[in-house]
Structure formats: C-alpha cells, structure tokens
Amino acid sequence: MNAQVTTPAPAAPLRKAIECGVPDNKPHLHPTLLKNYGNWKYHDRPRPGVLHHVSHSGDEIWTVRAGTQRQMDVYTIRTLCDIADKFAEGFVRFTIRSNIEFMVADPKKVDPMIVELEKNGFPVGGTGNSVSMVSHTQGWLHCDIPGTDASGVVKSMMDELYNEFKTEEMPNRVHMSTSCCEINCGGQADIAIIIQHTKPPKINHDMVANVCERPTVVARCPVAAIRPALVNGKPSLEVDEKKCICCGACYPPCPPMQINDPEHSKLAIWVGGKNSNARGKPTFMKMVASGLPNNAPRWPEVNAAVGNILRTYKADARPWERLSDWIDRIGWPRFFEKTGLPFTKYLIDDWRGSRANLNASTHIRF
Amino acid sequence: MAKPMHPTPNLDQLESGPWPSFVTGLKRLAKDKDYVVDILGHLEHSYQTRKGYWKGGTVGVRGYGGGIIPRFTEIKDDKGQPVFKDAAEFHTIRVMPPPGMHYNTATLRQFCDIWEKHGSGLIALHGQSGDIMFQGATTENVQKAFDEINDMGFDLGGAGPAVRTSMSCVGASRCEQSCYDEAKAHREVLNTFLDDIHRPALPYKFKFKFSGCPNDCMNSIQRSDMAVIGTWRDNIRTDEALAKKWFAKHGMNELVNDVVARCPTKAIQIKEIKDVRKADHFSSVALNDSQALEIDNKDCVRCMHCINVMTGALATGTDKGATILMGGKRTLKIGDLMGTVVVPFMPLQTDEDYEKLVELGQKTIDFFAENALEHERTGEMIERIGLVNFLEGIEVDIDANMVSTPRMNPYVNTAGWDEEVAKIAAKKAAA
Predict the structure, then answer these.
(1) Which CATH number fits domain B237-315: 2.60.40.1730, 3.30.70.20, 3.30.360.10, 1.10.287.110?
(2) What pTM was computed for the model?
(3) Which pLDDT score is estimated for B330?
(4) A273 touches chain B (CB under 8 A)
C-alpha cells in the first residue's frame, strides 16, 4: 500500500515507454461478441456454469464459466489457453471474481469443454444463485502489510464451498471477499472475512526517525491517538493505547509501528454488503463476529463460521433475497438467534454518525 | 532443474481439496526456477510465524513514476543477508487490461512467455483494481519485462497517489443490460489521464469504474471515486413472446412473490389486459390471454430487479446513458463512504456525449488535485467541504436527485434564498 516514489531500475536498456494506455478490447473479443456488440436481447442459464445469450440478430453464444486460483502459474494459463483454442475459437475473458469465461458459438462444444475443464481441475460454475469465487487480496505472498494470507484462506474456503460454486442452490447469488487488513482491498461482499487487530502497534523506536515521516503518521490516525515523542533520546512516536482502535492505519506509512501479531490479529466476519441497486439501494456490510483465530494453513474456525451463516441463509431466505434482503426481512435479533452467533457490545457502533444505526422506532419482532 | 525445495509442511496442506491450488502452481514453477523455490520458502515462513515479510522500496521503469510494486525481503540472517536469497526481490508489475478483461489466447501466451523469461512465472488475473499483476521479478528484470509487455501494446497501471487502473464490465460485448459502450467510456476517460496514472502526483488515489447498468457488476458505487453506472430515461421495453414463455414456466405465484412484491417502489401491477393504462409512461406486456403486467415508469427507480428476473421479457429502455456517482471508498480513514449522485443522467450515445464524460472527469481530477488534503480521497474531501462547494468547483448544478432527503437540521444561514430562487427561475426561463 505504500506510495511509490521511484527511480529507474539500474542497468536498464535505454528504451522509452510507449504511453499507449488502456488497450482496445476489439482484438480480444470473440467474433460473435464483436458482431453483436451492443445488440444483445436476453440470456438464460441452461445449467449452472453456463450462460446462453441471444442477440437481436438471432445469433447465440454460450459462455462456460470456470473457477481459477487467480494467482496462476504460466502452465495453468497455457492449459486454459489450450482449452480456449480447442473449443472456444481462442478467446477468453475473466470476471471480477477471477473466474474465466469461454465463449462458444456452437452449443455442441459446451459439454465436451466442461468435461475438459473439469478433467484439468477447473470447476465449472459460479453463475446465478451460486456461491462465486472469493474476491481477495495478496496476503503474505506479496503484500507489505498483511495480517494474514489471502490465496490460502480462499483456497481452503473454496474447497469447502466447492459444491455451492458448482450448483445454483442459494436463494440468490453470494459474493464473498477476504482482506488481510482493515483497508479491505477484497471489498464489500455478502460475506467478508477481514483481519481485525486487537492490540495497539508495537513500536520499534530505534527505527521511527529514520523510516517514518512523523507528521504524516500522526495525521493518519482516525482517533488522534498518535503523538510525537522523544523515546530513549530519539525522536519517535507514541500511541495513547486507551484511545487506539487497533485499525492499523499507522502501519503502512510507518512500518516500525508493527500492527500484525500472530496471536492478537484476529479475523472478523461481516455480512450484508451489496453493490447492486436491485431491489433495495446498495448496502455496506456489517460486522457480526470477531475474535476468530488466524489459524493457517486452513483456517478451520473461519470456514466453520462462514459455513454456518451460509447454511442458515440457504435454509431460511426466500428466492431472490440476497443476504442483506434476508436480514431486512427477519431482523438482526433473529439473524443472531438463527446463526447462534453471539451479539456482543462490540457490534454496537460508536463511530461518528453511529446513532443512525440504532433502532429509532418500536419496530421489534417478537 | 532448480535447487532442492525447502520443506513446506503448511503450504503442502493447501494442495489437497478440489479447488485449484496456487501452491501446486508455484511448485510446478519451482521445478525450473530457484526463484520460486525461495518464494515458497518465504511464504512457508509466513505461514509458520503468521506474519508478512515484504517491505516496499523504490523500483520503477524509465519515464514512469508508478506502476511497479516493489518488494524486498525482510527475512534476514544475523549478518543482515536474505535467508531466501533468490527471492530477495519480488516486485509486481501492474498492467492495465483491455476493457471487460477479454483476451485472445495469443496475447495470454505471449504474457506467459515474457513472464517465464523475466519473472517468477506467476500472474494474477486480476488484482482488485483490475490490473493484470505480473507477480515477482528482480529489480534488474523489471525494465526488461516491461519493455516486452509494452511492445505488445500494453501499458502500466496506477499505484500510489495517482489515477488508478480502471475496470469495466462485460457490458455491450455480451450483456443485454448494457446501457452504454463501457469499453469506449473506459478507454476515453482513462487514456485522458495517462500522465496522472504514470506519474503519481495527486493528493491520493483516484479510481474510475464503469458498470453498464444499475446491477453495477464492477462494484463501482462502493469503491470508486467516480462511478459511471448505466441507466435509461424512457420506458422499460417488453417482449410478449418472452413474457408469455416466462409466465408459462413460472406461474402467478412466482410472478407476484418474486417480481411484483420485490419492486422497491411498487411500480408494477398485474391487471386484466383490458384495464391496462395506455399513457406515455406505462409499459405493459401480456402474460396470457387475459392478464398483463403493467409498469408505471414514472415510479420506477431503474433498480433492475424485474429485468433480472424476467430477462428479455422486460428490458432496459433505449434513451440510454449513465448516472455518475462520486466519492465511494472503503473504511480508512473516516469510515465507509458510498458514492453519491453527482449527475443523475448523462446521455452516452454520441461522441460528443463521451467527450462530456471525459470533461467531467477532467474537472473532477483538477478540483481534487487542487483541493484535497494529502491522503484524502474524493469522498472524504466532499464530506469536509460539503457537496455544494464541490459541485460549484466542478461546475455542476444541484439537483434533488442528489439527496435522500432535504436537510434535517436548521443550522444554515438562508439569507441568500431569494437570490437562489431567482437564479433557478432564470435558468428555467433560459432553457
């Protein structure tokens, strides 16, 4: 997350960058998509993992969607290209959730392609009212501030949700995300798993003066808990630990303020985020559980908690209710009752504007 | 053949189970690359100690100030030497994808060849901002890899306080719900700001995202500073054959429970065909020989629900364009902010329409560059200065569509009221 102030790499050949910007999509479009650009009429789903679009011109296209691991080695990408060359005229696209899509104009190719994808380990699904792939971040593999891993959490979660990816048995679509810090690069989702630190940063006072621009760090704190201080004769920073909300905002601009802790960086679960305008307006997700251990390599406690919420939603929600729509109908007390999740004092908002989240009515379900 | 593998008991557990495993992929790469052998060792160390060990730094390509995410190992021995020496540097190259993330396989294969030669061989499709992420190269190889990627007609994405890489949905290329040419808008807007993408000099990041309809598949309202979301002004279109087909399959109970009852503004009614209203703003379609579905488009908020359920039987209108919302972002620092309406409707059909969209982007970036505080996103700036001041800055007139409700407190000096009323009247008269 650090800003990059950069200098040229050493020993680079003298070539000037061509500032070509965002490339044209046209050379990358399947011929049927190119021909019917902006002229589609409707679509249906012949089976989970397959979309069928019909154009006003009468042309039809079948799309087969498959899950990937997102961080892909070149061999995996070449395998996907081989499948696209064999069945899909050499074109693919990716969804926002890192699923790959193959378009075919000939419906006879759909079933053999599904067989080929599954044979190579790529599950076909993720359409309609399924649980789609978890959108996620970099984690320990590459991030400079991660509290946990991303790809590993997602792998262990999708192993559990494999059948929900491949079928369309949920009340409505379920989007999930994971994030390795509270910046939440994974984004809003029906269910999100996000790091929630529970201890103030541990400051390496020997390093602060050399590494951190102290006024910047002071300004980053949402609760003004950081102030400049002289520690052991060196200019440093100190944190008012009573005020500190353990958000980790000071850590990116000041790595000596280590916020990540193997034991005290916990995982929280959030539900009910929805970006679509369908039915109700878009909603932000709400925290419903915290304190789950960062239990690599397979995070069983997180998987159990997510599985529980999904099972409850699946059993209780009506058709077309997203998680947020379902909770709107049944109410928060019953959400906690049905899922068995404890409603603790930490779930009552006390940030600015928080009274808007209190129940200012006698609307209570008994 | 690469050097022997480090033991990876934790990562090994991520190879079982049915979902595709990134660990298996890394191990395949490690057969030929010492680099990836050490990356696996590095990652295993994180799994064992439950901490991250990469720090940022300064790596770039000639002529650009951003787009490379530098990573240097922090796992050092007593002498300060990297424990995983072949993975001491693990930089990512962010590259902007074509709109809609479509690829011909020749392009993907060429990416693979370049990255196998110069990098780790690990490519993430895609990062959360939409970048193709070529993950893992040494400082020395970053420029070489970029040169070859750039020669293919691909360019670096944004990083740091810059205009960031954008995303657009599948849109017009394969979706009947598309309300504008998302790819055209995406390219015309982003390619206007190449300098702001490649040379980070803004107060903080600025993200554009493009969704073709209010389903907002790009999640633009929650995570972009300027969200362009397709919509339409005229009536919902109907198709009798598809409506009857839908009704025959799903029946009255589903129609009532899943469509009519879920309309957020109760704009839909079921009627006898003879009672259907015919005024300009009604859409209607027969479901069988006697009954029809009627929509009062004046009450419709274009939420998409009925169109999603009865795809083809109901469809978006033809007077198309976009609603522009600004200021969305996630938590840090002041809390989550949703994008809010700045332009209720902007037609997006002619080239001039698209130029106006670019102009709005330009004015917004200019105002943001001059007025935002360091590390302040657009939404936070709007919260600090108020929407009215922001609109004045980007020369957009106020509109009642911009609010959920009018003001709920009296803490405002309304001395200029008459003057404002006169201005509005004058504008109306001139229009």
Answers:
(1) 3.30.70.20
(2) 0.96
(3) 87
(4) yes
